[in-house]
Amino acid sequence: MPATVIVGAQWGDEGKGKATDLLGSSVDYVVKFNGGNNAGHTVVIGDQKYALHLLPSGILTPGCVPVIGNGVVVDLAVLVQELDALLERGIDVSRLLLSANAHVIPEYNRNLDKVTERFLGSRRLGTTGRGIGPTYADKMNRVGIRVQDLFDEKILTQKVENVLELKGQILAKIYNRRAPEVRDTVEELLSYADRIGPMVADTGLLLNRALDRGETVLLEAGQATLLDVDHGTYPFVTSSSATAGGACTGSGIPPMRIDKVIGIVKAYTTRVGEGPFPTELQDESGERLRQAGAEFGTTTGRPRRCGWYDAVIARYAARVNGVTDFVLTKLDVLTGLERIPVCVAYDVDGTRHDEMPVNQSDFHHARPVYEELPGWSQDISGARSLEDLPANARAYVTAVEDLSGARISAVGVGPDREETVVLHSLA
Ligand code: GDP
Ligand code: IMO
Ligand code: MG
After folding, report:
1. Nearest C-alpha to atom 6 of ligand 2 is from which residue?
2. Is 41 a catalytic site residue?
3. Which residue of the set 21, 41, 53, 231 is catalytic?
4. Is residue 427 a part of any domain in this protein?
5. What region does 214 belong to: left with phi over 0, alpha with psi -120 to 50, or beta?
6. How far apart are CA 145 and CA 152, in angstroms?
7. Looking at the domain assignment, is residue 91 inside a domain?
8. What is the pLDDT of residues 149-165, one digit of tens each?
9. Which of 28, 72, 271, 326 has the smallest C-beta neighbourhood within 10 Å, fewest atoms?
10. Is 90 helix (H, G, I), strand (E, B) or coil?
11. Last residue of a domain, which of 214, 245, 262?
12. What is the reported pTM?
């Protein structure tokens, strides 16, 4: 197993953190390659629960080297807070590496994210307000600030002057906010240099050298396929490449070195923020999923929108990412339902679509075509092998597998690391 990628196959919060943690003990490096502290990955180990936003989930595995790759956008205050919180809980964080090429999220971009959303009103995207979009926009616009800039005050000052020339005016003249001072911004950024200095590295080089030595690397995505800036439900997406291709650009590991792509898919569907969601349930069935699955955002606490499993988007995720294995999570949440609808295709104005419609407007009014599967009532949280599952739960797994375009190699039956049915080894 040279390099393995873990990606979300839906709209996020599929359980990537748990899956990464599960594999963490068998890998040498865990790399976060996209996104920033818009992510919220929950890992439950025994009676301890950890909510990670910026740090890769591998930070919890002793011996594993956690890496923040070049594709990540880093809020330095959050980085320090998260590290301190883990240190207080006795977690060794000394192995963390931070790419010199990762971009940082300055305060003005957090402010711009929030004021833009407020300005948009009913047309807002429902972002996490963490400055993610404006920071990736700066990166593409070639006016971003990188981690390495914190170690050259002259260059940093020039870059901040350059970017604030325009952004200061936007904040002041369009949004009626105080324009940030160049000096304040530079000083704030410089204040982190000593703390992060020892972590900063040429992570692309280190990771490729590790692979040369036969060590193993796990690349952990934030967000998910349908939130990917290219392949998601644009413009209702995040601003990074959350799919398997992004694992290469966001880490410096070439495609040929990746031999496994694990898609994490929930046994039903959720979404936070605005945007189309064909299987969304606005009734008590949706509320039941929300309560049973504790579907409230790890990052913003917002109630997640809930709906039935959508095999069309799972097939799409399998194709876009080249998924070799799916991990089907939260099957236990479906326990107690008499019948479970699964979306197998869409009806768009009377035409059946087995694949994602190419035109986003069609996706906005796609109506799900459902097949109903029989439910089960037995508690499945103690199941550790397929045989432990009731026949109808097994049939659900098989049906979802047949519809979704890749084999299901593990099934989640509870939040704990141990609460997993392994069908095929993922190591
Ligand atoms: P991520 O963003 O993909 O890492 O997912 P989140 O951590 O935001 O959301 C997934 C939630 O489901 C977390 O609270 C996990 O502890 C929990 N979880 C993960 N797998 C399972 C499972 O199989 N069953 C149940 N009941 N909860 C799970
Ligand atoms: P994990 O890694 C679910 C959503 C936001 C919003 C859109 C854009 O925990 O799966 P952004 O702040 O990124 O500009 O917001 O993307 N979003 C997520 N939804 N899980 C996430 O991360 C998300 N990260 C961003 O709600 O709709
Ligand atoms: Mg999450």
Report:
1. 127
2. yes
3. 41
4. no
5. left
6. 11
7. yes
8. 999 999 999 999 999 99
9. 28
10. coil
11. 262
12. 0.97
